[in-house]
Amino acid sequence: MSKVIYVGMDVHKDHTNLVCFEPTFTADRQGGKDFCATRIATSAQKVRSYLETISKNQNEECTFKCGYEAGCLGFSLYKELRAYGIDCTVLAPTTMLTQKGKRIKTDDRDALLIARCLAYGTYSAVVIPTEEDESVRDYIRMCDDHKLQLKVTKQRINA
C-alpha cells in the first residue's frame, strides 16, 4: 500500500506556495510532519514537476492529494491538474477548520493549513461546474447583457 502525501497550495496570480504534509495518527492525538515547503510560479506543469521531485525522494511508493482555497483564479488550475492525473480538491475557505489565536497569516502557514485540512477532512469541497454548467451560465449572462443594452438604447431614444 502506498502512503498518501497531502499537498496544500496557497495559490496567487503569479506564485504558489506548496507544503507537503504526512499525517500520523495515534490513539490519543493527531499529528504529522510537514516538509518540502517551496514557492513556485502558478502553473500546473510546475506543480507536476514538484510532485515528481517529491516522489523520487521518497523511500516508498506514494500518492498525492492536492488542494487549494477557492478564490479569484477560478477552476483553471484544478482542471489542468486533473488533466495531468493529479488528484486535486478546491476547498471552501469558510469551512476550513482554523486554530484560534493564530492570527498571523503567511503563505506557508496557509498552505500548511490547507494540507492539514485535506489530511483530516476538516473542510467542504467546492462543487466544480461542468462545461454544460459554464455554457448555461455564459448564456444567462449574455441574455442579461442584451437586456441591459436594450434598456440603455431605449433611454437614449427617449432622452
Give a written overview of the molecule.
- The chain is α/β, with parallel strands linked by helices and 159 residues long.
- 40% of the residues lie in helices and 28% in strands.
- It has a 5-stranded mixed beta sheet with strand order 3-2-1-4-5.
- The model has no long low-confidence stretch (mean pLDDT 87).
Observed structural traits:
elongated; 5 strands; alpha/beta; five-stranded mixed sheet; 159 residues; single chain; 4 helices
Query: What's the arrangement of strands in the largest beta sheet?
Result: 3-2-1-4-5
Q: Give the total of beta strands.
A: 5
Structural class, by secondary structure, is alpha/beta
Helix fraction, binned, reads 40-55%
Secondary-structure map with pairings?
Blueprint: E1 3-11, E2 15-25, E3 30-41, H1 44-57, E4 62-69, H2 76-83, E5 87-91, H3 107-120, H4 131-158
In a nutshell, what does this entry contain?
The protein is of the alpha/beta class and 159 residues long.
